[in-house]
């Protein structure tokens, strides 16, 4: 997400005025598990997740047959440290947008369960685009 720090939020304020901020509250363990299950094909950047988007052959890129790697910052201990650091840095950003009355928070562990609520909020704030036939 962006902004991640108060400094970034302040810089963003200088170039635009936000009227809506979305915060997704996902449990620490869910985030840690998902990020730790991520593997990539370095040459292409293709991303696999061993839980919900695994390669056909474990550890091997589907298209090239080359080995997949786990980034150092996706290893469980690194993920845990990243999440703790993010939480500490993001807290003042969340408080800033909450105090302005523009923060909308959604909690859950599954995209398909959170998305309908996010979509409803966005639909209430952004008018639908008309297709060429409707114009």
TrEMBL record:
User: Please, which domain of life does this record's source organism belong to?
Assistant: Eukaryota
Instruction: Return the InterPro entries for the record.
Output: Adenylat/UMP-CMP_kin, Adenylate_kinase_lid-dom, ADK_active_lid_dom_sf, P-loop_NTPase
A family per Pfam:
ADK
The molecular function terms of the Gene Ontology recorded here are: AMP kinase activity; ATP binding
Task: Please verify whether the record's keywords include Transferase.
Answer: yes
Task: List the signal peptide residues.
Answer: none
> What family is this protein classified in?
Belongs to the adenylate kinase family.
Report if keyword Transferase is assigned: yes
- From the Swiss-Prot or TrEMBL record, give the protein name: KAD4 kinase
List residues of the Adenylate kinase active site lid domain.
38-73
Print the keywords alphabetically: Kinase, Nucleotide-binding, Transferase
Query: Coding gene?
Result: Ak4
